[in-house]
Amino acid sequence: MSLIALGLNHHTAPIAIRERAVIDGNSLPEALQNLKDVAEVKEAAIVSTCNRTEIYCGIHGSDTKPVSTWMHDFLDISDQQFLPHLFAHTDRKAVSHLMRVCSGLDSLVLGEPQILGQMKQAYRDAAEVGTVGSELSQLFQSAFSVAKQVRTDTDIGSSPVSVAFAAVSLAKQIFANLEEHSALVIGAGETTALASQHLHSNGIGNITIANRTFSRAATLAESVDGNAIELSHLNDALASADIIVSSTGAPLPILGKGAIESAMRARRYRPMLIVDIAVPRDVEPEVGDIDGVYLYTVDDMNNVVDENRKSREAAALQAEEIVRNEVERFMQRQRALGANDMIRSYRDQVQFTQQQLLEKSRKQLLAGQDPQAVLEHFAHAFGNKLMHAPTKRMRQAAEHGDNQLLDAAKSLLDLDTPEK
Questions:
Q1: What is the pLDDT of residues 267-312, one digit of tens each?
Q2: 206/179 Cα distance (integer angstroms)
Q3: Prior bond of 418 cis (ω within 30°)
Q4: How far is the C-alpha of 95 from the C-alpha of 18, rounded, in Å?
Q5: pTM score, two decimals?
Q6: Does residue 111 come out as left (phi exceeding 0), alpha (psi in the -120 to 50 range) or beta?
Q7: What is the SS3 assignment for 374?
Q8: In this structure, what are the phi and psi dihedrals at residue 18, rounded to the nearest 5 degrees?
């Protein structure tokens, strides 16, 4: 079985493609089961976030095409849009990719810790559906372990850098004194919760949480000394918001150009920062054309996070070394496991030969034959049986000049060891 990692992420695909590739929580069980039904797929897990939709599989053979074809069909994206942005890794590269993702080394914000929680959730989701087995379980557990080591042994997580933190850093660049301004946070998920906490800790004057489920908005608002509203009252809160951070799971934009234009007129065109960190996008792109509005998407955050990335590059080098070492250890374990079937088959073969000859020897002893002669015959026959196949192959290798096989036979049979 081969291990593969395949999909789209912020390195390979723009947000316009990534938002079409999102597999939300409601669709995930169906997607996993559907993927598992592909003939070549033995095990499967899917992670789908704002920055990546990636598939991790154990497959029969090494051809990744059946999985890419499944993804293409399930997402209903045309070849022209899909294929140029697809990546596919197998075995060692797939193992390395997963470990780097879990360790935050593949993230838009280098070293951000949220991805590890998302990867653990992806594993739990796949385990619940029953699409992971021993191979992927070992791989994910190793990846979680190396992520923990990276977090413990390096300074990659020493400062609170995340997309949410970057959004607040951007707000501080546009509005010098956050105490004099108000924020509207739309959504009550992990990323918006982090953004709310960062805004609160940086002294934002007022914060309002809007969410489809009011109780979740109220819980988050209470933790940051803010106010809560239902999403249906969103338009009423726009005009008073200097900073809007939005990340919902809505399939279509929830903030249109018309609503923001109305809010800006009411504000007399005082500046408004909108950070749309949702995939699919929560804000219509045309909003960015309105005077006084600063609209940023996830992909626009690159410049903001670059400064934070520089401070983590030295730690990232250490982390990469930790990952490389763990990849090598994992591959060694996999190679050892791969040899188990061969070893088991060889042992079974030897035991079968042994039992055959022992049974023959027992019959000879019961017939009254000389025990010494029976033992000598057993030893001679057993040795000949064990040596027949390898000696035959060594002769054939010598006749055909197959020195590689002869060298392997010397090592395997320990023929270079001096006699004691």
A1: 999 999 999 999 899 999 999 999 999 999 988 876 666 666 677 7
A2: 8
A3: no
A4: 23
A5: 0.65
A6: left
A7: helix
A8: -60, -40
The label of the residue with tokens 């196949």 reads 389
Alpha helices in 19-174 (DSSP H): 28-36, 65-75, 79-82, 92-102, 114-129, 134-153, 163-174
What distance in Å separates the CA atoms of residue 346 and residue 53, rounded to the nearest whole number?
43
**Residue 85, both tokens:** 């942005």
**What pLDDT score does 353 carry?**
87
Task: Output the pLDDT for position 416.
Answer: 67
DSSP assignment letter at 370: -
Spatial distance between the Cα atoms of 287 and 285, rounded to a whole number of angstroms: 5
Task: Report CA-CA distances (Å) from 168 to 179, 196, 204, 244, 298.
Answer: 13, 9, 10, 10, 13
Sheet containing 243-246: give its strands across.
Answer: 227-230, 206-211, 182-186, 243-246, 272-276, 293-297
* Distance of alpha carbon 154 from the chain centroid: 21
| Encoded tokens for 156 | 């990659």
Tell me how far CA of residue 349 lies from CA of 252, 322, 353, 386, in angstroms: 63, 41, 6, 9
Asked if 327 and 95 count as a contact pair (C-beta separation under 8 A), the reply is yes
* Degrees to nearest 5, angle at CA 338 with 332 and 343: 115
What's at 312, amino acid-wise?
R
Spans of the chain, pLDDT less than 50:
420
Is 50 part of the annotated catalytic residue set?
Answer: yes
Q: Tell me: the pLDDT tens digits for 221-248?
A: 999 999 999 999 999 999 999 999 999 9
Helix (H, G, I), strand (E, B) or coil at 42: strand
Backbone angles phi, psi at 239, to 5 degrees: -65, -30
Of the residues 50, 146, 168, 186, which is catalytic? 50
> Under DSSP, is residue 177 helix (H, G, I), strand (E, B) or coil?
coil
Using the 8-state DSSP alphabet, how is residue 283 labeled?
Answer: B
3-state helix, strand, coil in the chain (%, to 5): 60, 15, 30
What is the distance between the alpha carbons of residues 354 and 166, in angstroms, rounded to a whole number?
Answer: 69
Backbone angles phi, psi at 329, to 5 degrees: -65, -40
- Ordered domains of the chain (ranges, CATH): 2-157 (3.30.460.30), 163-305 (3.40.50.720), 336-412 (no CATH)
